[in-house]
Design brief:
Layout: H1 4-7, E1 22-23, E2 26-27, E3 44-49, H2 55-71, E4 77-79, H3 93-104, E5 110-112, H4 135-146, E6 161-162, E7 176-180, E8 183-187, H5 192-196, H6 209-239, E9 244-248, H7 263-266, H8 272-282, E10 286-291, E11 298-300, E12 314-318, E13 327-332, E14 340-345
Parallel strand pairs: 3-4, 4-5, 8-9, 9-10, 10-12
Antiparallel strand pairs: 1-2, 3-13, 6-7, 7-8, 11-12, 13-14
Length: 354
């Protein structure tokens, strides 16, 4: 969940186990329910969602969203973080076990990345009843619950490659990549709440200086891991001649300071965003960033070349969330020059339901 100022802005495999093949050290999700491989020029659709369920009403609506996704013909889905609203109580173990059960009720594979309400804010950013936990301990717990193996979540799973398989990055199990058709998918732990780079007095930050310093050190280490995984993954996509890359993380990175924030509210993204832009420009194919965090569905092209012209081969998509318990479908069509087509999927039972 974003801070108060940000919140003001908000207004295919079927039912058989998806088997994997490994190539160039990357997991593939290219096999259908009939046992035959999907050709690289076959179009397919995936689901994108996050920042749900929020509040009592969201908990009622969440099963409708899952049922809607289960009825669709998606190959897999990606959840871009936030298991609850910041004010929805403490980050107890039950939060993660209940969320795990919800993810595993999806018939097809779901890849999950963390959200700030899952760990960075669990110290009590949102007031009484929302704290009592160490943020880094909660992240470690989330890693144990959601990422114990090289399998995704879901009733049927897909195999992913985790950054933790590489020396020096053993704890970053949440950072993943896999391929489907001509597209590489990358999941990163990039968070709202300024990517866990706190500043005293900013966005409700009231912890002592020693704790702020400890979180800043975590941010710096994880940022290095994120940049390593992003660059390495794009390098592999280039070498394999893939047509597209889709990156998924939780944070709204405030491209071009579109939210008119103060520097201390978004300086946690001053390295990852330029690295993303660098990789996007160097990659000959299409790129997309999917994120949540601000709870406002949008699709735009916020990156520019040095000459001020738009980077035409990059698209940013923000999923629904908070009061809007819906999802986004992404169709990947290798015969389409744009490769990616995104469309909102409104869950009828959750429309105008409050």
């Amino acid at each position: 969940m974003r801070n108060i100022r940000r919140r003001a802005i908000a207004a295919a495999g079927a039912a058989a186990i998806v088997t994997m093949t490994m190539g160039a050290g990357i997991a593939r999700a290219d096999h259908g329910s009939n046992g035959g491989s999907h050709a690289n020029d076959d179009a397919y659709t995936i689901g994108l969602f996050g920042d749900v369920p929020y509040g009592a009403a969201g908990k009622v609506e969440y099963p409708n969203l899952i049922a809607d996704m289960n009825k669709s013909n998606i190959r897999f889905s990606i959840f871009d973080g936030d298991l609850k609203a910041g004010g929805d109580g403490a980050c107890t173990d039950q939060l993660y076990t209940q969320s795990l059960a919800s993810f595993n009720s999806l018939k097809r594979p779901v890849v999950v990345v963390p959200g700030d309400n899952d760990w960075t804010d669990c110290w009590g950013r949102y007031g009484p009843g929302t704290g009592g936990f160490d943020a880094l301990e909660r992240l470690d717990h989330e890693r144990q619950v959601f990422y114990p193996t090289d399998q995704s979540l879901g009733a049927h799973t897909l195999t992913v490659q985790r950054e933790s398989s590489e020396p020096g990055y053993e704890k970053y199990r949440e950072n993943v990549r896999w391929m489907s058709g001509p597209v590489m998918y990358i999941g990163l732990n990039v968070q709202g709440s300024n990517d866990n780079l706190p500043h005293a007095g900013v966005d409700g930050e009231s912890r002592p200086a020693s704790e702020i310093a400890r979180m800043a050190e975590e941010h710096q280490q994880r940022e290095k891991a994120n940049i390593h995984w992003l660059a390495e993954s794009y390098d592999q996509a280039r070498r394999l001649g893939l047509k597209g890359v889709l990156v998924d993380w939780q944070a709204d990175p405030n491209f071009n300071n579109e939210q008119k924030l103060q520097p201390a509210q978004y300086d946690g993204f001053t390295e990852i965003v330029p690295e993303l832009r660098k990789q996007v420009i160097a990659f000959p194919g299409q790129s997309a960033l999917v994120h949540g965090d601000s709870h406002y569905f949008k699709m735009d092209k916020p990156l520019n070349y040095d000459n001020g012209q738009v980077v035409e081969k990059f698209t940013r998509v923000e999923t629904f969330g908070a009061a809007n318990t819906h999802w986004v479908a992404a169709t990947i069509d290798p015969r389409d020059p744009n490769l990616f087509e995104f469309s909102p999927r409104i869950v009828a039972a959750n429309a105008n339901s409050r």
